Amino acid sequence: MAKKLRVATASLAGCFGCHMAFLDIDEQLLELLKYIEFDRTPLTDIKHCGPCDIGILEGGLCNAENVHVLQEFRDNCKILIALGACSLNGGVPAMRNNFTLQECLEESYLNAIGAENPHIPDDPEIPLLLNKVHPIYEVVKIDYFLPGCPPSGDAIWAFLSDLLAGKTEIKLPHQLLHYD
């Protein structure tokens, strides 16, 4: 049996829907595990990305921790895949880009209905927010983009199957792609 490929995944600024869609490949996940082993992923609870063959990231960049994780993945992964709308264009989190960061903080922490002891948190343990939400390609080179919100389990399975088969030009059938 050939050496298994190491795969890492992470969710940045998003809803975790792409990871849920990844799990939607259902029993095919067992087939996938014949060819891969996981490094950092919510399934392993490993906190840092080690050297990997494939990195899969969902979500955009809204804070300094997101940027750090993204750069760690790019440094450690031979192939980096952007999964879902948030990684491609910022998705729903990027809706805050229509307002200043200060306006968002004030609305969330000072003016929120039912806010007790209103104040904007400034604990050093909280990652520093970026002024805008950014798609990940603005910071690092991405090798493959898989669109969708989220992409379907079938699309993820087809994409990974082609990638594991050694294909470098991957074109999924139109019926597997959706942009809603």
Write a concise keyword list for the protein shown above.
180 residues; Rossmann fold; two-stranded antiparallel ribbon; elongated
Structural domains: how many: 1
Assign the CATH architecture: 3-Layer(aba) Sandwich
End-to-end Cα distance:
40 Å
Q: Structural class given helices, strands, pairing?
A: alpha/beta
Number of strands: 7
The CATH superfamily is known as NADH:ubiquinone oxidoreductase-like, 20kDa subunit
Radius of gyration: 18 Å
CATH class: Alpha Beta
Low-pLDDT runs: none
Quaternary arrangement of the chains shown?
single chain
Rounded mean pLDDT is 92
Order of helices and strands: EHHEEEHEHHEEH
Give the helix tally.
6
What is the global morphology?
Answer: elongated
Largest sheet: 5 strands, parallel
Strand content: 15-25%
Helix proportion: 25-40%
CATH topology: Rossmann fold
